[in-house]
Amino acid sequence: MEEKQILAQFEVGFRQHFALSDDEWQSFIDQGKLKLYSKGDVLFSAGDVVDKVGFVCAGTLCNFYLTPDGNRRNKSFLQQGEVSACLSSFARGLPARFGCEVLTDSVCFELPAKALRSLSGSSPGWKDAFLQMVTALALKKEAREADLLMLSPTELYIQFVETCPDLSQSLPNYHIASYLGITEVSLSRIRAKLGLQNAYQRQ
């Protein structure tokens, strides 16, 4: 797909959610660019000060933590229409505590964090859009924390299948298990208990 087509689709989806004038949209586009990523690429790593914001146009990304002993804990999956950013870097210039990996070939529209800060501070439309984006991130984080504290592993998996059916079928088992906070063996047992016959994926 050509860059113009990708940007056109991005604009349609974005402006369905946020009320921006043509000038506000053009100012945004002028300060960013499309970036193509391949599976396995890393947008940023833990310890980086993340000085950009990425809007996912296509593909699947994953925010993840690495524990001191090297174990991976998947924080969230990002798909079309979602934002790749680190709020602690954006707001306070602090190093990220998590990384962001590309799980499938992806396309993002990226712009410098300072450009988005400037837009949100000088443009009414972008001020509202930025507030909505931050609120959405906060609500997503709150829901994720509540789920991990209140739901059993089986309930977590059922919810994941219901809310992310495409990811539940396409992601390798270790990514799903990491997101749920369980081992691959436990995930297989849950699937067997539920009578699911998903193909075992490791790629």
UniProtKB/TrEMBL annotation:
<dbReference type="Pfam" id="PF00027">
    <property type="entry name" value="cNMP_binding"/>
</dbReference>
<dbReference type="InterPro" id="IPR014710">
    <property type="entry name" value="RmlC-like_jellyroll"/>
</dbReference>
<dbReference type="InterPro" id="IPR000595">
    <property type="entry name" value="cNMP-bd_dom"/>
</dbReference>
<feature type="domain" description="Cyclic nucleotide-binding">
    <location>
        <begin position="16"/>
        <end position="135"/>
    </location>
</feature>
<protein>
    <submittedName>
        <fullName>cAMP-binding protein</fullName>
    </submittedName>
</protein>
<dbReference type="InterPro" id="IPR018490">
    <property type="entry name" value="cNMP-bd_dom_sf"/>
</dbReference>
